[in-house]
Specification:
By secondary structure, this protein is of the alpha/beta class. 37% of the residues lie in helices and 17% in strands. It has 2 domains: 211 residues, no CATH class; 158 residues, Rossmann fold (3-Layer(aba) Sandwich), CATH 3.40.50.410. It has a 6-stranded mixed beta sheet, with helices on both faces. It has a 3-stranded mixed beta sheet with strand order 1-3-2. The chain has a two-stranded antiparallel sheet with strand order 4-5.
Length: 393
Amino acid sequence: MRDSNESLDDFRTRLAAVRLQLLKREPFISYLSLELPTFILAPGDPLCEIIETAATDGRRYFFNLQWCKRLTDPELGFVVGHEVGHVLYLHAPRRDERNPDRWNSACDFVINWLLLHTESLKGLICMPHDPEPIGCFDNQFANLTAEQVYDRLPPELGMPSWDPMITGNGDSNADATDAARGAMARALARTKEYRSRNGQGNTPGEWERVAMEGMQPTVTWQALFQMKTAASGHDSHSWTRPNKRMRPHGYYLPSYRGFCLPKTLFVFDTSGSISEDFLGQMAAELNRLLQLSARSSVTVVTCDTEMHPLGEFRAARKFNPQQHKLVGGGGTDFCAPFEFAVKNRYEQVIYLTDTYGTFPSKPAMRTIWLVPEECVGKVPFGETIAIPIPQAK
């Protein structure tokens, strides 16, 4: 790092020049750094209190001018690649309920190792120095995933990350994932065109291969369920409790109260063909969903040939299959829950079923079906998530 009085305009020019140098060596990093909005935080910007260095939320890049203008060109190139790496690996939406600082450090170990072992970047970038190298790097974590590194890190870290990972700032995990994958797809297309135009052949570079693998990820059905059900949710804000952190800066803004699901009806098919193990597995997933959106409530009903309301449930009032009996055991008619949902203006219906029954006409609200793997393709509308059936003990 260096002493610098660089202006905002001069820094923008230098950042563009660094991205151009990356384009010549590793075009995918350069293109992905351009595909998402970049914000340079000048002194006085309220976000400077949160982002003292550089950061990403999976949808945008942030550079604090006061810190970044002190970086040499190789250090700035490293920082650009580092933030791109967080987007490439979908680190923000993958955190789940892990400790934020420990997760961020685990992700940094993964990115920094890849950056320093990318042959095309050698001699072009280096880790920031102040005056010693700062950042997370250890060869013992070579070729590990962030989850694997996280499990191996001690609870108290002696080498914290220098860049915060921003989450929960108005976008759901599904939004951030979709934005990142869309940016990766565009960057891959532009990189392929660039390599072809400059006679570099069709062989993808190391970062492109990582991106192509990320475009077809192995996603557990539980993660898919959480992403789809939360996709149309929203953040809750309150004007009765203004944001205290912004008031000293002259901003009167509402405080963030948490993420809320859309108005949701959760239906258990309790016909005779549904096993108790399957119902129990889905009850656990319902409670996980409630925990992720603590300010939301979900209406739960059961249905065979008739609908049986069980009540409203939330994180503070979990669903207990032993206490709240899943009434049913007859045939299956899917119509009653949808009629109830339309009448009461529900925005989303989540229906657990084996798909054997009478379907209504397509309703106006979003519908997600949780069905056994062998029943995929049997529902006439909505989105389907295949669930592996628990093995009988």
